[in-house]
Design a protein that fits this description.
The complex is a heterodimer. By secondary structure, chain A is mainly β. In chain A, 0% of the residues lie in helices and 52% in strands. By secondary structure, chain B is mainly β. Chain B contains no helices and eleven strands. In chain B, strand 4 and strand 5 form a beta hairpin. Classes of the chains: A mainly beta, B mainly beta. Chains A and B meet through strand 4, strand 5, strand 9 and strand 10 of A and strand 4, strand 5, strand 9 and strand 10 of B.
Chain lengths: 117, 112
């Protein structure tokens, strides 16, 4: 089946530093990937839609300068949390949509637990 | 306003009981997915429903897609402690260009 690799799974960083999270589709091409944020015991909140070769589309209330998204190839999207602060601590999850199954081919990464100290 | 209203948000039952989780919307969806998520991991797809009125079964789990493709339900028969987890419905409205959004989630706890 389709596999999405998300790395790192856990990261601890100091306030003010930047952290990059990678999302890679291993056996399919994904022109579109999605980034979500999840707080404990809550659902996933869509942050942005990442489009290969063009700018990401951010949801209302998400700072695009804070959460930089780059989708440089059909299999890789990255999310960089810039100048991280403790309130950015969260579980970040990516999803890649298989180009051959645009209505239902969503596969999720295993998530990244970010802790900012 | 939540695009997908999922209920109940919390469910605590005894082993052997049946339960149903609902996912409702005023929007039409091209498909709806149900996921299960364990703590510290990403959501794992259980099923995708595509056709209005569709019913799919996965062992003790039965999934239904409403005739108008605006709602869905997940029914678990004879729940077991291993069913404990966070259940999520998600869908991409036909007007959303494939942007997948989630319901609030249902935290299910099955006690032995």
């Amino acid at each position: 089946g389709a596999v999405v690799s998300q790395h790192p799974s856990r990261v601890i960083c100091k306030s003010g530093t930047s952290v990059k999270i990678e999302c890679r589709s291993l056996d399919f091409q994904a022109t579109t990937m999605f980034w979500y944020r999840q707080f404990p015991k809550q659902s996933l909140m869509l942050m942005a839609t990442s489009n290969e070769g063009s700018k990401a589309t951010y949801e209302q209330g998400v700072e695009k300068d804070k959460f930089l998204i780059n989708h440089a190839s059909l299999t890789l999207s990255t999310l960089t949390v810039t100048s991280a602060h403790p309130e950015d601590s969260s579980f970040y999850i990516c999803s890649a949509r298989d180009d051959r199954k645009t209505n239902y081919g969503y596969t999720f990464g295993s998530g990244t637990r970010l802790t900012v100290v | 306003t939540q695009l997908l209203e999922q209920s109940p948000q919390f469910l605590s039952i005894q082993e052997g009981e049946n339960l149903t989780v609902y996912c409702n919307s005023s929007s039409v969806f091209s498909s709806l997915q149900w996921y299960r998520q364990e703590p510290g991991e990403g959501p794992v797809l259980l099923v995708t429903v595509v056709t209005g009125g569709e019913v799919k079964k996965l062992k003790r789990l039965t999934f239904q897609f409403g005739d108008a493709r605006k709602d869905s339900s997940l029914h678990i028969t004879a729940a077991q402690p291993g069913d404990t987890g966070l259940y999520l419905c998600a869908g991409a409205p036909v007007t959303s260009y494939g942007k997948l959004t989630f319901g609030q989630g249902t935290i299910l706890t099955v006690h032995p």
